[in-house]
Design goal:
It is built from eight helices and no strands. The chain is globular. The N and C termini lie far apart (58 Å). The protein has one domain. It is 62% helix and 0% strand. Helix 2 packs antiparallel against helix 8. It is mainly α.
Length: 173
């Protein structure tokens, strides 16, 4: 008798078609704008560290966002591997914090530095583990908190969201 196993991983990119990191990132931002993505990530994070509380959103929406962020992290990794420079045309003199977001001036000039720094510290699997843990802990009330460092991957994800959006804006110009 032949064993059959069910794969629960999404088969979104089946078919052998090679996609670029920018194309995957553009798909992410078509369905999730920057502000709502940051807000949803912040909400998941805050409910994950709160004891005896859980997120009020529909679980399917949280799961869809989890899958979208996984895809986004893989897009960032592909861009990191390409290693192109995305330098801004004019150098900003005294840029305002509203323009920079969480990025430093160097990271604003070359957003790929954000991805290089993030993937130097964490692997794609570690980002997946972080997001899975955050979704798990935000969906129910638990007495114990997650045992891993939550702040650094969270900050890296926020910076990657800023850098990815910045890259797509520059690409459009």
């Amino acid at each position: 008798m032949k064993k059959t196993s069910t794969h629960f991983e999404p088969q979104l990119w089946k078919g052998g078609k090679k996609r670029s990191g920018l194309q995957l990132m553009e798909n992410f931002y078509q369905f999730n704008d920057l502000a709502s993505s940051k807000e949803k990530l912040n909400s998941i994070m805050s409910y994950a560290v709160k004891r005896n509380s859980w997120i009020n959103e529909d679980p399917s929406v949280v799961f869809q966002f989890h899958q979208a962020v996984r895809s986004f992290v893989r897009a960032c990794y592909l861009i990191h591997l390409e290693g192109k420079k995305w330098v801004a045309d004019p150098l900003l003199e005294n840029p305002s914090p509203w323009v920079l977001g969480l990025l430093s001036e160097k990271e604003y000039q070359n957003p790929v530095l954000v991805f290089k720094k993030a993937f130097k510290e964490y692997s794609v699997k570690e980002f997946d583990y972080f997001m899975s843990g955050m979704v798990y802990f935000s969906m129910g009330a638990y007495d114990k908190l997650p045992e891993t460092n939550l702040v650094n991957p969270y900050l890296h994800l926020l910076k990657m969201l800023d850098a990815g959006h910045l890259m797509l804006e520059r690409r459009g110009k």
